[in-house]
Design goal:
By secondary structure, chain A is α/β, with parallel strands linked by helices. Chain A contains twelve helices and twelve strands. Classes of the chains: A alpha/beta, B alpha+beta.
Chain lengths: 349, 319
């Protein structure tokens, strides 16, 4: 019988890096640290589409993204032989645009936000035009595609094998894929798993009024269908200053070099784990710090932007309604309610 | 070989090995035993590269035993007693062919205490013991993987009984190993019972295989991850959670009656989990072998009786 696993040879860089490293930060706090988390849903959405016959080499993949999903898609499309057009907005920094083009993706930038729905709406409108123009296309639609949350089964497998029963999962929410997907699988083993969603002030996902957000990589100006509100037990809204400080703290304390979205998730998870010392906590960290060397991790930028002198809170202000609070960090007991129930203030039966 | 020596062999008393028969006229009886099982710890579809494979992890059950005795002969074909053990005869014939026809036929006798079609793996046990008996009679051996493929050829789908009490994820419709979980199960106490009330099982192979959704396919891999950990760390509680989750997922495809009530009994009797034969009417409550075990099983028996389930049995699996 074969029991040993041979040293693995990856068939591609996607196979090599799509899974997170599981790192124990403290006795009850574990990080699932991804190099590029969106690679996993990108790969799964495209592979499942190919399995269904909706995609074949030479097909045109169209997607709107201002973040790392575009990079994940670009890598998979390049390796699988699909053409790709990414519709983004000025939030895609120039370096990422160059990187995307260097691996063969076309990048279109919407320069102006729509009056309602912001850049998100403008990107979706442009996407609709491109769909008209390319009859043989496939739109992964990470916000509504079930293969996005389903792609995190392999992460749950890894967590179940390395940690076993997980009592609390903390993750930033943008499309809902990682938090809703991973928790749905971990709850097979631990039905009572406490799911903490991390959002940012001004994001409408958990009911804040829409306003411009300084922190990118989480939050949304539309509510994605993949966010299943009834899965969440608790929600935190974390602002840019708190997230940046937390990311730098993660580097200083644990030598873990991650982006500000990971910093925000870590801030909430660290607080939750300290308050629940007997619970096993896992925090999802979606990307590394390299893209933020000139900002969050630049001493000069950090100082000039005023972040080194601003005061950040060490604990959330607990709120009972999803409204912007007095500080850059609020939290609310969500109790697995729908958004309508929470906004209407009704208590679930 | 004398009749006396044959009897010793048939009783399984000796470790003596005779040389392989030089001619078929020196034919002697070969004997082999196989255990049954008590359904599955985990059953589903598993991602294997870009392929999906149906597979299961069996819960072995020592209460169930089959003994097969095979006496080779020059006659054409294998005669089997009792006559309805057809698959066992086919398995013996296929094994002889695999070995290059050291005998052209023989007499196969199956002695089994396993009730067919309840989910105890009676058919695979017959087949596995028969293959073993042919190997014993001819003084030959075959790798587990070959035995598994012979078993599937004889009976369309096979359980993993040829691997003994080793915990393996087995592709029962292909007859091959998907993954060796590295050890046997940890000691676990099983309180078994029938779920159909009338003790009638299910004709497994007459049923279409379950069509799982893509969410469910990913769910099974999470359960497999947890099971690897449970077996590595001898964690009976985690094993019980895996079995319960597998039973819940399969409940959507092959429902067993009063499943919700059985889950409640498990909770109220401090069972670590519930396992079911996904292809029969057998189910079991799993208990960690703690000092309060008999208190818990007594309570479970009383609670099951209130559901009308009065026939129960108990055994210890794993080591």
């Amino acid at each position: 019988l074969i029991t040993m696993t041979a040293a693995a040879l990856a068939g591609s860089v996607v196979d090599a890096i799509e899974l997170p490293k599981i790192i124990q930060l403290r006795p009850n706090l574990h990080a699932a640290a991804f190099g590029l988390m969106k690679l996993l849903p990108a790969r799964c959405m495209l592979d499942r589409a190919a399995d269904r016959g909706e995609l074949e080499p030479g097909s045109m993949v169209l997607e709107t993204s201002s973040g790392t999903l575009g990079l994940g898609l670009a890598m998979v499309c390049r390796l699988r032989g699909y053409r790709l057009t990414i519709v983004g907005d000025p939030a895609i920094d120039v370096r990422l645009q160059e990187h995307l083009r260097q691996i063969g993706a076309a990048v279109e930038i919407c320069q102006r936000p729509s009056a309602e729905g912001g850049y998100q709406r403008a990107r979706l409108d442009r996407l609709a035009e491109l769909r008209e123009r390319h009859p043989r296309h496939y739109v992964p639609n990470q916000y509504g595609n079930a293969d996005n949350p389903n792609s995190y089964g392999v992460v749950a497998e890894l967590l179940a094998e390395s940690i076993g029963s997980v009592d609390c999962l903390v993750g930033a929410v943008g499309s809902g894929g990682s938090t809703v997907g991973t928790s749905s699988y971990l709850r097979l083993i631990t039905p009572g798993l406490h799911l903490v969603g991390v959002d940012t002030p001004g994001s409408v996902i958990f009911g804040h009024p829409d306003r411009p957000r300084q922190l990118r990589g989480l939050g949304n100006s539309l509510v994605p269908p993949n966010v299943k509100h009834r899965e969440f037990d608790e929600v935190h809204w974390i602002g840019a200053a708190e997230a940046y400080h937390a990311a730098r703290g993660l580097l200083a304390r644990h030598c873990l070099f991650m982006g500000p979205t990971s910093g925000a998730a870590y801030l909430a998870a660290d607080w939750w784990a300290r308050n629940n010392p007997h619970a096993k906590v896992v925090v999802l960290m979606p990307d590394e710090g390299h893209r933020y060397r000139d900002t969050v991790y630049s001493e000069q930028w950090f100082h000039e932007a005023g972040f080194d002198s601003c005061s950040v809170t060490r604990a959330p202000t607990v709120v009972d309604r999803p409204e912007p609070g007095p500080s850059g960090w609020t939290s609310m007991s969500w109790r697995r309610r729908s958004l309508a129930e929470v906004l209407g203030g009704t208590v679930p039966t | 070989m004398t009749l006396f020596q044959q009897d010793i062999r048939a009783a399984g008393a000796g470790t003596l090995r005779y040389p392989a028969p030089v001619t078929p006229t020196t034919a002697r009886a070969g004997v082999s035993r196989a255990g049954g099982h008590h359904g599955e710890i985990l059953q589903g579809v598993f991602v294997n590269g870009r392929k999906l494979r149906r597979g299961l992890v069996t819960l072995p059950c020592e209460l169930m035993r089959v003994t097969a005795t095979f006496t080779p002969s020059r006659s054409g074909g294998v005669a089997v007693r009792p006559a309805w053990c057809r698959k066992a005869a086919v398995a013996a014939q296929l094994t002889l062919a695999e070995l290059g026809q050291p005998a052209t036929g023989g007499t196969l006798t199956i002695s089994s205490n396993i009730t067919p079609s309840r989910g105890f793996g009676s058919s695979t046990a017959d087949v596995t013991a028969s293959i073993g008996a042919v190997l014993d009679a001819t003084d030959r051996s075959l790798p587990h993987a070959v035995i598994a493929s012979l078993a599937v050829a004889a009976e369309k789908a096979s359980d993993s009984l040829m691997y003994g009490d080793r915990a393996v994820l087995f592709a029962h419709r292909e007859g091959s190993l998907i993954e060796d979980l590295g050890a046997c199960l940890m000691p676990i106490h099983v309180l078994g019972f029938g779920t159909s009330g009338d003790g009638h099982g299910v004709d497994t192979l007459a049923m279409p295989p379950a069509r799982y959704t893509s969410w469910e396919i990913e769910a099974f891999r999470t359960l497999l991850g947890a099971l690897r950990r449970a077996i590595r760390l001898r964690d009976a509680d985690l094993l019980g959670r895996v079995a319960t989750a597998s039973a819940k997922l399969n409940q959507l495809h092959l429902p067993i009656p009063r499943f919700a009530d059985i889950l409640t009994v498990a909770r109220n009797s401090r069972a670590v989990g519930v396992q079911v034969a996904h292809s029969g009417d057998v189910a079991g409550l799993l208990f960690a072998p703690t000092p309060s075990l008999s208190f818990c099983t007594d309570r479970a028996i009383r609670l099951l009786a209130r559901l009308g389930i009065r026939e129960t049995w108990q055994f210890r699996a794993g080591r």
